[in-house]
């Protein structure tokens, strides 16, 4: 953990140095403006560190979480936009320098004819644009303004997506061994609710209302319910008690449960009426097995996934649906003959183009696929982690309808 924190702080400091260089150093001359800009960048870094560290220790620092996580999103899109503009900016500066060398402007000729002591920066060859700024400074400021507008606009849109009502998706999935009598069996799937400093009781109430409107046969909560302890978030989770379905509501741990006191949360969700599937399996009415495994993060807490315990000894003629928080667990699921795995964890990437990085770690980022012969469906999740921002991956709740052949 200490190594991770040092690494994260190093990365954050490096990113802020880059932003300082592009947004402050390259766009200002030495003086007051540069000092103010430097101070703002340093303050932004301090606020970000505070949001990531202090809010986990003090639940009363919600205001710091809001500011810090919003800055994290703005920082991300500033970084992406500036990186994209690096090559065009370089070309613009080089072309301008070449043009000035090949054809001195009128200001340069006037400077040559004037007494040396009267020459100014504005009169030197290639020194200024018609607006009175050097071309290099003009390009740097144009890039900085463009990056700022793009980042602010993207984050503003992303906030409306993250804090808005989750989308309702519907997906039909055929199971070869599903009995005809269970054709159309309805599974309400929700993951990554992420109750925490920025998502509280009203967030839970809205999710419960949406799920109850689906008239589902079962409800499945596939991990990352919380970002905090029971003492901090128990009241926010309480509306889960009102979940309605024909054959019960089920829960498996996500990685964030292990960061938030998983043993207390397992007891809490049980008291709220959800059935935790801890490396175990239940037989649903009609001839369908439902299994659940702990998240892979649990291995570091002596509570890891055990596919053998959950799946061995079952009737292979019956279909089995597995709840597993992370899509990467599908490889083990396939070895045990799982027909369908339901997962979350990825948030669909949450903030594009971050989804491209998620693909390096998970076999499926969002939606349906088949991996090693096992079908898998991955929900974007109903909440958010970190910045209250979603771009290209709106929150969702999915109604999976199982179909018989």
Automatic annotation (TrEMBL):
Domain of life: Bacteria
Region feature (Disordered): 112-132
Keywords for this protein: Hydrolase, Membrane, Metal-binding, Transmembrane, Transmembrane helix
Transmembrane segments: 6-24, 36-57, 69-91, 138-159
Chain ranges of the Calcineurin-like phosphoesterase domain: 186-348
Any one Pfam family match given in the protein's UniProt record, by short name: Metallophos
Xref: CDD domains: MPP_YkuE_C
PANTHER family named among the record's database cross-references: PHOSPHODIESTERASE YAEI, TRANSMEMBRANE PROTEIN WITH METALLOPHOSPHOESTERASE DOMAIN-RELATED
Record's protein name: Metallophosphoesterase
The organism of origin for this protein: Hamadaea flava
Biological classification of the source: Bacteria, Bacillati, Actinomycetota, Actinomycetes, Micromonosporales
């Amino acid at each position: 953990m200490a190594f991770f924190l040092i690494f994260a702080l190093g990365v954050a400091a490096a990113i802020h140095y880059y932003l300082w260089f592009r947004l402050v150093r390259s766009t200002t001359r030495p003086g007051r403006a540069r000092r103010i800009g430097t101070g703002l960048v340093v303050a932004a870094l301090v606020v970000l560190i505070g949001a990531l560290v202090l809010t986990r220790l003090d639940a009363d620092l919600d205001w710091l979480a809001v500011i810090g996580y919003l800055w994290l999103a703005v920082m991300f899109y500033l970084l992406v936009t500036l990186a994209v503009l690096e090559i065009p900016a370089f070309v613009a500066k080089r072309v301008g320098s070449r043009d000035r060398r090949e054809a001195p402007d009128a200001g340069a000729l006037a400077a040559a004819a004037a007494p040396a002591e009267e020459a100014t920066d504005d009169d030197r060859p290639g020194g200024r644009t018609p607006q009175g700024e050097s071309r290099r400074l003009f390009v740097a400021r144009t890039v900085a303004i463009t990056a700022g507008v793009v980042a602010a606009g993207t984050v503003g849109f992303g906030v409306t997506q993250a804090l808005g009502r989750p989308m309702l998706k519907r997906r039909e999935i055929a199971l070869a061994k599903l009995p005809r009598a269970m054709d159309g069996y309805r599974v309400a799937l929700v993951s990554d609710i992420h109750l925490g400093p920025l998502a509280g009781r009203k967030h839970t109430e809205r999710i419960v209302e949406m799920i109850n409107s689906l008239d589902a046969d079962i409800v499945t909560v596939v991990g990352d319910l919380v970002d905090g302890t029971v003492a901090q978030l128990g009241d926010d989770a309480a509306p889960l008690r009102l979940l309605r379905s024909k054959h019960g509501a089920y829960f498996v741990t996500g990685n964030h449960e292990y960061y938030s006191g998983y043993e207390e949360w397992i007891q809490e969700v049980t008291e709220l009426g959800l059935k935790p599937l801890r490396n175990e399996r239940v037989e649903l009415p009609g001839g369908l097995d439902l299994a659940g495994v702990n998240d892979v993060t649990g291995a570091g807490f002596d509570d890891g996934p055990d596919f053998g315990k959950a799946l061995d000894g079952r009737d292979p003629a019956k279909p089995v649906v597995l709840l597993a928080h992370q899509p990467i667990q599908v490889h083990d699921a396939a070895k045990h003959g799982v027909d369908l795995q339901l997962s979350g964890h990825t948030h669909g990437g949450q903030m594009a183009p971050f989804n491209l990085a998620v693909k390096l770690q998970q076999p499926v980022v969002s939606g349906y696929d088949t991996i090693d012969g096992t079908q898998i469906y991955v929900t974007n999740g109903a909440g958010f982690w970190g910045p209250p921002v979603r771009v290209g991956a709106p929150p969702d709740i999915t109604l999976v309808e199982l179909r018989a052949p």
